[in-house]
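Q: Could you fold this chain for me?
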Amino acid sequence: MKKIVSIFALCLVVFFAKSQEKKYKVACVGFYNLENLFDTVDQPDVNDADFLPNGSYHYTSAVYWDKINHLSTVISQIGTDISPDGLAILGTAEIENHTCLEDLVKNDMLKSRNYKIIEYDSPDYRGVDCALLYNPKYFTPEFSAPIYVDLKKLDTTSTPTRDILYVKGNLDGETVHIFVNHWPSRRGGEEASAPRRELAASICKKVIDSLMKIDPNTKVILMGDLNDNPTDKSMTKILGVKADIALVKPGGIYSPWIDFYKKGFGTLGYQDAWSLFDQSVFSYGWLNKNQSGYFFNKAYIFKKEYMIEKMGNFKDYPKRTYAGTVYNAGYSDHLPTYVILLKEIK
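A: Sure. Below is the predicted structure, expressed as structure tokens.
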């Protein structure tokens, strides 16, 4: 009898423990530089000549559709080990126009997710833009707009760069603000070009600060190919990101990528070393795990063997679309990054 009572008591303890386990909804949010996703049609007033069938890259329809398939393969797999829906939201850079993204989301590997697109033509001299793809099962946009980055404030001879894409929307019942960025490149040298990226960062910071004045718990995600590492001035001084969640104050910003970078992880090969330009950072409102809404859980770099170059000058780096002007049947010269957001199911 004592043995039976003991077993029964143990069962009650196990049952009680199981009943106390928390359950969560999952939302995956990512960013991916799609590396020159151009169509094959000449677009007036932009410098897309290289990416035409008779251009230097011999960018034919066969190459275009192969690239669409390759990018779809990657995007379709990101986050599926955690959520069967994969990415709820994906920021992108280096796309020529809306048509390219329509072809991407209609690919057989992605079309069941019913991704929608937010994209504006930017003044970038190459004609590439930032965009946001979202699964309407998770996210509903309420407002969006391009934010101009006026480089002529620094140098009147500067060519235009990419706009910052701002999107305000509803993520499963709560308001979030998303900034998708592709900051100016390091052309001319890291130090000489740094003020251009710092200007872009300051423009984002000004808008974010205005939101935080209304509510310091406002949920903001800033993502993009920032052409700076997580420890550079644009991040640590201008945006004021912190690597330690405990140090982030109301209105502040957390970066999960500083520790990644310090450990030698990156998203692209740059000057014979890994750089981590593809980032997403999170405002204070995402950091409390004891809340009714979504909270930040974990960050990842998505890296599979098929995405890595096996030979040549770029060996062990992301397998790019072209090696010089020769089609390389690659994916992108950047690796995507993504984060997991969790929301407790009461």
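A (continued): The two ends are 38 Å apart (CA to CA).
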